[in-house]
Design brief:
The complex is a heterodimer.
Chain A lengths: L1 H22 L8 H22 L11
Helix pairs in contact in A: 1-2
Chain B lengths: L1 H23 L8 H6 L6 H12 L2 H14 L2 H31 L4 H9 L3 H32 L4 H17 L3 H30 L1 H12 L9 H12 L1 H4 L1 H4 L8 H34 L12 H6 L4 H39 L3 H25 L2 H13 L3 H11 L4 H25 L1 H4 L9 H19 L1
Classes of the chains: A mainly alpha, B mainly alpha.
């Protein structure tokens, strides 16, 4: 469950990183596009840290 | 003359300290190919993390990306940050599995990993051939960058830059393999990040309020918005998004941490390094463009000239510090590529095909490092224009390895049918990339659509579809 949630979250982050610049911030006239990408990366980093600290995720790989 | 003396002193100091570090790393003792190429899976987290970062971030960052940001604005930051977002995910999601499998199955070379995952021996040779064709131009481009940096400080001494780069790589990689590589990477990685911090601090002190007013003018030209077309953005960013699973020099680094804690540290510290370095480099690019907009800097038409032009205004000690950090960035990337290619020669060819012994394989590895460096230096010395062009293509040509590697990690199960699909997938993707490059030229091929799709996306789709056929038939 934890792995699937992180997978879904990461795909959402990557989709946003490609879509928002074209759909929302294409013509922006300040540093909001830069701030968006930076904030997205920081939030993704925070979520990744939480994921990495969870013991379950690191031991739940399906057995080959 | 003063500049030349300062550059020579700093470069000598840098090479001397690096060599002492490499010599000290000999104490670990090398007995097997596993010791030599993946440090016997015994690297600490900090060493593994900075080594991973120094290998990933080449001279492209401080030269190419600064210029790209200067020319195209904030979009260049997005191009680089999508790499980091994707790599954060890939490393956190798959690296633990890869690390465990590497320890269990004693993987040393990434080509060996692919053939083991699918249980098909010839796969390692196909992968090795792809690595050679894609990475020799890329590694040569790093050596060319070292030569050009030295030539910039001392005209006519391009050859000396090549020689210094080769000697440094030979000692720092050849002595103790991954041990000397990772130790010198740590030292060089710190040099890179400290120089970048110094550079950006000086730039803001020097530029002052002109940077803010210039940024406002950039906004009027749309440089703060998304100037990159979707085709270019997708095509350029896709190979980098999968860089962590397609490039052997970084895949091999995933085998090295000593335990899970070290692997976690690799991921977190690498991300912090990568984010800081990317932000600093793109801020330098934006600030330089802002200074051009208000007339403090002349208009710079060639992107790669932005950093050298800026360094012309910087205090001499900072300029040579940054100059050496660019040399360091190039050498760390080249070292890791040479080590990864050498592991393929001694492990995949000599040991797996010819049944060679471990100790002899290590010596053969050292010889292959020397041979590879001689080839790279010859290619770099000739300064063939298309080599730099081909280096741009490297990550696109290696893109078919993304589905093959990812599916192998999750579903490989040493199935022979899957192995044949992997071979077909690799060959198709690679040949499409090569054919498109021959047809349109290396640089243009990346932005010339195939059936309306960005070419790298097309290559990825074809390779993935071929891999899916046996999976769907199950």
């Amino acid at each position: 469950m934890r792995d699937k949630a992180y997978l879904a979250w990461s795909l959402l982050v990557l989709t946003l990183s490609y879509m928002v610049p074209y759909l929302v911030l294409r013509e922006c006239r300040d540093l909001s596009l830069y701030a968006f990408w930076l904030a997205l990366t920081l939030v993704h980093f925070a979520v990744t840290l939480i994921y990495l600290r969870g013991d379950v995720s690191w031991r739940s790989w399906p057995q080959r | 003359m003063e500049e030349l003396a300062a550059a020579v002193i700093t470069l000598t100091l840098y090479l001397l300290v690096g060599t002492i570090i490499a010599l000290l790393s000999r104490r670990v003792g090398i007995k097997t190919t596993s010791d030599y190429y993946v440090a016997g899976h015994r690297l600490g987290g900090i060493l593994a993390a900075i080594s991973y970062a120094a290998t990933t971030y080449s001279a492209f960052m401080m030269v190419g990306l600064v210029g790209l940001t200067y020319a195209t604005g904030v979009g260049a930051f997005g191009f680089e940050i999508t790499y980091l977002l994707s790599t954060m995910f890939l490393l956190s999601y798959v690296a633990p599995k890869v690390w465990k499998l590497a320890k269990e199955r004693n993987w040393v070379s990434p080509a060996e990993m692919i053939s083991d995952l699918y249980g098909l021996k010839p796969l390692s040779l196909i992968v090795a051939a792809m690595y050679l064709l894609a990475l020799i131009p890329y590694a040569s481009a790093q050596l060319i960058a070292v030569g050009r940096m030295v030539e910039g400080m001392a005209p006519g001494l391009y050859w000396l830059g090549i020689l210094l780069g080769v000697v440094a790589a030979l000692i720092w990689t050849g002595l103790s393999g991954m041990w000397s590589l990772a130790s010198t990477d740590l030292y060089q990685g710190l040099w890179m990040i400290l120089a970048a911090i110094g550079f950006v601090v000086w730039l803001f002190l020097w530029g002052g309020s002109d940077i803010a007013s210039g940024t406002a003018r950039m906004a009027e030209k749309g440089l703060l918005g998304m100037k990159w077309s979707p085709l270019v953005f997708v095509s350029y960013s896709i190979p980098w998004a999968f860089f962590a699973v397609t490039n052997p020099q970084v895949v091999q680094k995933l085998y090295t941490p000593k335990d899970e804690r070290a692997l976690r540290r690799l991921i977190t510290l690498f991300t912090l390094f990568g984010l800081s370095y990317t932000v600093i480099v793109t801020v330098i690019g934006i600030a330089s463009r802002a200074l051009t907009e208000v007339g403090r800097l002349p208009v710079i038409k060639v992107g790669d000239q932005v950093t050298p032009s800026l360094l012309g205004y910087a205090p001499l000690p900072l300029a040579v510090f940054v100059f050496t950090s660019i040399v360091a960035a190039a050498i760390t990337t080249m070292d890791a590529i040479v080590l990864a290619l050498s592991s393929t020669a001694s492990r995949d060819v000599y040991q797996h095909y010819l049944g060679g012994e471990d100790r002899t394989a290590v010596n053969l590895g050292r010889i292959s490092i020397l041979a590879l460096l001689l080839v790279l230096s010859y290619v770099a010395y000739l300064k063939i224009g298309f080599i730099v062009d081909l280096s741009v293509l490297a990550s696109a040509l290696l893109l078919p390895l993304a589905p093959v590697t990812l599916i192998g990690w999750f579903y490989g199960r040493r199935s022979r049918v899957m192995g044949y699909a992997a071979a077909a997938s690799l060959a198709s993707g690679f040949l499409i990339g090569l054919y498109w490059a021959l047809l349109h030229g290396a640089r243009k091929s990346l932005i010339t659509p195939i059936f309306g799709l960005p070419p790298t996306l097309f290559i990825l789709l074809v390779s993935t579809l071929i891999m899916m056929i046996p999976l769907l038939r199950r």
